[in-house]
């Protein structure tokens, strides 16, 4: 076989790095479940016409064809490029078997054939939480689902994250109250504020959207409101625009920010940022983007919002609200930068040393006894000199080596301290902290805490 | 959107069914980790020339193309059809960063564009454990890796499984000792014994492979040996063939059977079945197929063996031994038949009832207090009459409903028994048995045991 080179856009993790990803996914899943969200997994393929409905992403879809298909056979299936399209289809397909409001989480890869760059891969894992209703979905679920993600990310050993919320009703109501005719177009222009200077954006509002200079000025004033405290309502009211939809959006936004702040702990910021517009097409109320401190270059590491028609089969409409966290987008840069690392590449806490090949049965029995009490271990591959067996453990980060003595008694050595003590395979246990591979994080003050420990401390 | 119909060959699970699959995967992973196997995940795509090396399966590969690719662009990537090809490539690509022998497990979907039938899907999840060495891999790892899967399946609440072992050296040595020239061809004919009558197979051995009738008879006698006790060596020796490779194979087979029987418990059978040949091309020693009682129609639910050249980069060869369990192939028929079911479709143990919409904050605080102690719960979606809120819980299988009384005290009702008692959100805990969704299994005597309980009992 030829030399292997990595496939651009399809990153793979080494075992100790994968341990980090698994712990993070386990922690996210635990939090989602604590909030009553059920896990589902959808197939990875969808009919192309369903994937292409969004329009804008169709260039990035991977289509599938059986290798033995006729050359002119039309491809009918593609890999999903997010978890929202398959979830919407799952809801429609299985609606008769689901209870609404249906609260689900989903952690799966998705695929986009786009140009790879830091944080953007052709295969990437996402973690999504959504609540979907049948015909109706009360607003309080917006608060609920956003608070779940705030809670979940607050438990991860990653750098500080910031949830920046806005509300589409607020923007639309404000623009309508100002008398701007083409609200959608105005939002599209305002969305360029992170790339263009304010004067340029103001000029475009006047020239392209047809606003007056005064209207353009008000739009800019609205878009630059960013508050982390309770002054939001006051700040918006001060702009002097009145509109029923604006009032509703403002009330919703204040409620989301307040509800999220209540569970945010001290490692998550929650702000109202009135420049966030996010995907003009299907969001209809709450919108959010999530940013990570020191990693602003990744743009958002997550986002989501409210969509009044997540799915519809013509008779019934399913409104939804949800938020997605980019697991690969966040973790791969953090792992690459050494911010996150796994404490060891193997689950084993102990290596059971081997005296002679004939005594493998004895060592295997010791390992079996440890395993019945949940202690992961392995038996040395060969009866090498003990020094060599210890180095074998060391290279894998296995903290303990177990010896069966000539007289049938046992000893266990902590190879980090060198301490060696008598031990009984029926009762010995390692310190709790060594039981599983741990995440080392330079992003949190306790730099070897695992997600589950963070959880216990809260 | 149009009416959705299921996509043949791409089964999806409802939430309570998915809970079964998740518990099974968690149990398998726990066991693999107890034995010191590290988890990895490979990307789902491989270069087509690597996938097609096997030859025989190439018709079933799904190839990938970006939807915007030029019409005559050559497809270069395909979805993996098993976890062995990507694992071999992973080992070659990352060898410099791995410690050998490298012990890994992998639980991922794979794809084959074949005709769907019961137990055979176009997307299916497999759980693989393998040990791979650099240049060499001592035989005792055969025993080890097979024993891990025996241990793992013995903890699942599925029908009785049978591990049927053979050894390629034994077969080859026996045929060589008999004086048969084309051993591979003879094995291929003997492999038809499960479809054709013995006389027909004997005739084919004579006519096609060129054996004498006596040689053919001996081959049949060997192939019909199937023993679940220690009489294996004696039975084979009684056929009077002597050969060095036969001796080695016989010794290995006896060791694998004995080592697996030692961990088999009472829900797994371990046998030597000398008819098992399995994939002529790359297995070189131990081979195994796994069958499930009452589901013989699925053929094997898992299998594997020893391959002296799992991977090679020209300079270094990586021998391996491993075994794969068909998660989808096993679980989907068991779920469809009602043998396995999930106790509830949601993780919530408790529904916190809502008195009025204005008191949502109070109920949310109760839920928050329960969650800090690991109790999954959700707040009622609306302040409906309590009877309606209880029925809401009932439909989801949530066993407890929590009430905040007018005087600020709390009560919790077990809606199965109707018993309602005073409770404090800071201290109340449900019975351990209700804490997580459980697997109900008609296949085990304790028909509501979860994998983790089985584990504790062993």
Q: What oligomeric assembly is this protein in?
A: homodimer
The CATH class designation of the largest domain in chain A is: Alpha Beta
**Tally of individual helices of chain A:** 14
Please state the structural category of chain A: alpha+beta
- Uncertain spans of chain A, ≥5 residues at pLDDT below 50? 446-458
Global shape of chain A: elongated
Name given to the CATH architecture of the largest domain in chain A? 2-Layer Sandwich
Descriptive notes:
- The structure is a homodimer of 458-residue chains.
- With 458 residues, chain A is α+β, with helices and mostly antiparallel strands.
- The first copy, chain A, has two domains: 15-36 and 81-339, BirA Bifunctional Protein, domain 2; 350-434, Anticodon-binding domain (Rossmann fold, 3-Layer(aba) Sandwich).
- Chain A is built from 14 helices and 19 strands.
- The first copy, chain A, has helices at 15-34, 48-51, 84-94, 140-154, 168-178, 183-190, 198-209, 213-223, 232-237, 244-263, 327-336, 360-372, 386-396, 451-457; strands at 38-39, 45-47, 62-66, 77-79, 102-111, 123-132, 161-167, 226-227, 268-273, 286-292, 302-312, 317-326, 340-342, 350-352, 377-379, 400-404, 410-414, 420-422, 439-441.
- In chain A, the strands form four sheets. Chain A has a nine-stranded mixed sheet with strand order 1-5-6-12-11-10-7-9-8. Chain A has a five-stranded mixed sheet with strand order 15-14-16-17-18, with helices on both faces. Chain A has a three-stranded antiparallel sheet with strand order 2-4-3.
- In chain A, strand 16 and strand 17 form a beta hairpin.
- Residues 446-458 of chain A have low confidence and may be disordered.
- Chains A and B meet through helix 1, strand 1, strand 3, strand 4 and helix 3 of A and helix 1, strand 1, strand 3, strand 4 and helix 3 of B.
């Amino acid at each position: 076989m030829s030399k292997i080179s990595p496939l651009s856009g399809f990153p793979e993790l080494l075992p100790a790095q994968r341990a980090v990803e698994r712990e993070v996914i386990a922690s996210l899943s635990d939090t989602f479940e604590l909030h009553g969200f059920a896990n589902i997994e959808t197939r990875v393929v969808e009919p192309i016409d369903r994937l292409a409905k969004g329009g804008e992403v169709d260039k990035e879809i991977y289509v599938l064809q059986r290798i033995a298909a006729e050359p002119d056979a039309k491809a009918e299936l593609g890999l999903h490029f997010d978890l929202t399209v398959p979830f919407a289809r799952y809801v429609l397909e299985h609606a008769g078997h689901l209870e609404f409001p249906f609260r689900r989480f989903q952690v799966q890869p998705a695929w986009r054939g786009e140009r790879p760059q830091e944080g953007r891969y052709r295969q990437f894992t996402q973690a999504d939480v959504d609540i979907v209703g049948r015909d109706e979905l009360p607003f309080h679920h917006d608060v609920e689902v956003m608070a779940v993600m705030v809670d979940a990310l607050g438990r991860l050993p990653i750098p500080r994250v910031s949830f920046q919320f806005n509300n589409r009703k607020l923007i639309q109501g404000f623009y309508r109250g100002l008398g701007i005719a083409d609200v959608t177009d105005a939002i599209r222009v305002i969305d360029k504020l992170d790339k263009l200077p304010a004067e340029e954006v103001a000029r475009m509002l006047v020239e392209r959207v047809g606003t007056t200079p005064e209207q353009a000025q008000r739009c800019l004033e609205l878009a630059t409101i960013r508050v982390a405290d309770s002054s939001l309502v006051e700040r918006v009211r001060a702009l002097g625009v009145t509109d029923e939809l604006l009032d509703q959006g403002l009330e919703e936004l204040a409620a989301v920010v307040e509800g999220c702040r209540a569970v945010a702990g001290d490692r998550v910021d929650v702000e109202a940022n009135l420049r966030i517009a996010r995907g003009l097409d299907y969001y209809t109320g709450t919108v959010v983007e999530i940013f990570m401190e020191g990693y602003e270059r990744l743009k958002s590491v997550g986002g989501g919002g409210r969509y009044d028609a997540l799915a519809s089969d013509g008779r019934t409409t399913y409104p939804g609200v949800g938020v997605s966290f980019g697991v690969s987008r966040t973790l791969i840069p953090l792992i690459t930068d050494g911010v996150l690392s796994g404490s060891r590449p193997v689950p084993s806490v102990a290596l059971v040393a081997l005296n002679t090949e004939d005594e493998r049965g004895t060592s295997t029995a010791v390992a079996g006894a440890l395993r019945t009490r949940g202690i992961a271990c392995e038996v040395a591959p060969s009866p090498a000199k003990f020094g060599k067996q210890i180095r074998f453990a060391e290279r894998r980060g296995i903290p303990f080596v177990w010896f069966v003595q000539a007289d049938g008694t046992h000893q266990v050595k902590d190879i980090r301290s060198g301490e060696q003590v008598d031990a009984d395979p029926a009762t010995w246990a390692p310190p709790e902290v060594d039981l599983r591979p741990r995440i080392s994080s330079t992003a949190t003050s306790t730099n070897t805490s695992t997600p589950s420990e963070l959880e216990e401390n809260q």
